[in-house]
Amino acid sequence: MIRTHSEMPPTAAPLEQGGTVVLATSPSASGVPHYRRRGLLDMEGGNPLSDRRTVEFDSRDAFINVIPLPPAEAALDDSGYSLHGRGPNAITCSLGSLEGTIGEVTRLSPTVVWVMPRGPVNHAEAPTLPVFLKGLGVTIGPLVGAFIRTDSETASAPVGLQLVGVTVEQGRQILSMLADALRNGVAEPAASAMPMQDIIEQPERIRSILTAICASGNKGVLRRMGRSVRMVLERFNSATAQLEWRTEEAVAEWGEAPYDVDVIGYNSAYRMRLDAGGMDGDRLFTPMPARISRIRHRWHRRVPAPTGASVRFHHPLWRELGELTRDAVDLSFSGLCIRCKPEDLMFPGLLPPHIELETGAGQTLTLRGEIRYVTSPRADGHVLCGLSVQPYSVDEARWVRFVSQTTSPATRTSEDMEDGLWDLFTRSGFFSLAGKSTEEFEELRLAFRGMAKRGAEIPQLFCQAVWPSERGPEATLSFMKPYRHAWMGHQVAKRPGKPPPSVQEPGQIMRDLYVRTFEHPQSDPDFRWVVAYVEALNPWIAKAHVRYAERQMETGQGLAFTRKVHMLDVLTHEQTGRSHEGIQVGLATPQELTLLADSIARTRPACYVEALDFTRERIDMRPVQARWKEFGLEREREILVARRGGVPVAATVLELGQRGTNLYCLLDMARLFSLTEEGPSTYVALVDAARRWYAARRRTSFHFLCEDEGGDYVQEAGIHGGPDPFMWIISSKLIPDFLEHISELTIGRRGAHNPR
After folding, report:
1. pLDDT digit string (tens) for 71-109?
2. Do residues 719 and 592 share a domain?
3. How far, in Å, CA of 588 to CA of 593, rounded?
4. Residue 566's closest CA among 596, 535, 609?
5. Does residue 551 fall inside a structural domain?
6. SS3 for 219?
7. How confident is the model over 555-568, as pLDDT tens digits?
8. Could you tell me if 574 and 699 lie in one domain?
9. Measured between alpha carbons, how far is 293 from 205 in angstroms, rounded to an integer?
10. Are 588 and 700 part of one and the same domain?
11. Which of 296, 319, 339 marks a domain boundary?
12. Which of 33, 286, 575, 642 is most buried (CB neighbours < 10 A)?
């Protein structure tokens, strides 16, 4: 069976073509269907996995039985290459006969032709008609085409033609024509992604970035007057306030300043203009730039594929090419690069629906994908094909584990390290936080062991990363997904004292853990926010988290939020014994849920509302509860309202999570919200009601998150003291930048590398 997933259904009926179904889709006025229009891969815009049109085959046999796929399922409507040639470099399209030219081709692939017409085009033709392509000294045709519905009411609207039954030889001719257009500079991949930039002008920030780059030994390129020189930033000399560069070429021909230089950071490229410089053989000395531009490469970091990793797949259009087995070059959570041959006839927008990835370790994973780019032939005759990929649902967990381990090989998941982790928490002082003792956690030990095993099997909800050594776990950091669009970072611990001999660089352990855990949610298409409660008493945590969020808040973009809160403890058996006369407490009605959501939206930042599921649509958290229940885990939210004379005046939001997910039971948390000026007078009654609610669920205590300065109600309700962490929220859009920030902090601890 085949399942098609799409945001919107096609607006046109299928068009029968020789026993196969050709889907005639409805484009927008721009020539690209609204529901399949591709934009730029915007690094600032969120997770690229979140908007995917996919076809999922329930078995390999189901896939093989439908090859070749009809064009509508084999490639995107905006597949191939955009063309902008004029005069002798233009490619024209004719309908009916070679002489029936209708205009210049603006987009072309073996599955689709888009034309900018020179005049009216008669769409009332037969279901199919002959199509001819002419340009660059070549004529191709007749091909068989069918109109894709266009905006006939708009003058000179683009005309789309779906090519039907294209043979291998015709496909080869079309791609050869496009290769010539690429060489002539009049074509570019239609699905190409442009990087985004931001400007950095703060001197300390620039110095931090460049110090981290020279410490990591990353490569750079100097460009001047059309010439490139490959180079390495060796160090920042604080005595002379100069950057010291070294060329990788035998003879350095730096030329005269100014220089345009690109250098690579953790997951960004930085571009700068150096207006002066002095040369000494293969070395160049320049002042620190006054500003640098950061160009984000990818949402997901890519790393070399494991040795022996390869893919198997059939061409979606031409089964006669046989099963193709090709080496994997690199990978990320959402992408693969494979080494192909020109005769494989790959092109941007092609949709291989069933790809089998051999991991190199005896494991086979099934993926579906989209060709995003195809390089020109290399010196060895091969071409590199970049694909965006997504695992089949049956392999989702295994894919996440495989990519996580490949991208962060120094770390592991926790399923076989429960005893070592408990020892690590003891040694690190984790159990003594908030004035607690190791003995108070013993009752959770069994639940923690169970979740350490379960969590490794459910990467859709959990990531507990460990940095192991010959001594056992050196450090750990965990993530879980308690909300619809937010993941929570928690439970960080590091062995005190000197690192093991295998660690050559201070900061390496924490950097590796942060990379693994903060990149892990990027495999989740719903990922929008990271939430944490961080103790800023640790100077490194203060710089890594609190200062970073404060800096982002200053931009006013609404992508981060942090503030100190009070995480107090409430014991369920300590009822106040008060009668709470005149106060009625009960479950919130739908109208009261809306009232509460509106009140929170007025009094809290938008990122708080979005991350913690306090929007009108998600305030009951039903989808989240269902998702956890799907894996046999507890996750619950219930909202109680205090009323006076039937009028709601305050509410408490009660949350509960599976025991063992966090040793401090962070998911067992209550919040109080006032709906009127009388609200605080009912807080004690709401706390007593919360005690009964948690006790009914066999909890002996829970946290009360106090977001104000408290009041008399804290003492009256018998609430106990606790730590004062910072609530910390950042957008998923900031994750690449945050990890760059972590890289700078940890690398900076090493000092600049000096090979001399």
Report:
1. 777 887 778 888 888 888 999 999 999 999 999 998 999
2. yes
3. 6
4. 535
5. no
6. strand
7. 899 999 999 999 99
8. yes
9. 12
10. yes
11. 296
12. 642
Would you say 408 and 515 are in contact if contact means Cβ atoms under 8 Å apart?
yes
Both 519 and 607 in a single domain?
no
Q: Within its chain, how far is the Cα of 487 from the centroid? A: 12
Residue 110's alpha-carbon distances to 172, 395, 494, 506, in angstroms, are: 8, 31, 56, 53
User: Highest-confidence range of 33-42, 235-244, 428-437, by mean pLDDT?
Assistant: 235-244
More confident residue, 667 or 504: 667
d(CA 728, CA 705): 13
* Pairing state between β 647-657 and 635-644: antiparallel
Reading the block at residue 310, the tokens are 């390869």
Residue 708 lies in a domain: yes
| Structure-token match 């409805």, residue found | 26
Q: How far apart are CA 189 and CA 40, in angstroms?
A: 12
- What is the distance between the alpha carbons of residues 117 and 457, in angstroms, rounded to a whole number? 55
Angle at 47 between CA 26 and CA 362, to 5 degrees: 100
Q: Residue 182: which H helix or E strand, with range?
A: helix 168-183
Q: Are residue 419 and residue 514 in the same domain, yes or no? A: yes
pLDDT tens across 473-494, in order? 999 999 999 999 999 999 999 9
Q: Is the peptide bond before 195 cis (omega within 30 degrees of 0)?
A: no
pLDDT at residue number 149: 64
The range of the structural domain enclosing residue 209 comes to: 196-296
Same domain, 714 and 642: yes
Phi, psi of 34 (to 5 degrees): -60, -45
Residue found by looking up tokens 């091909």 in the block: 143
Q: How far is CA 556 from CA 549, 560, 672, 728, in A?
A: 11, 9, 27, 16
pTM (2 d.p.)? 0.75
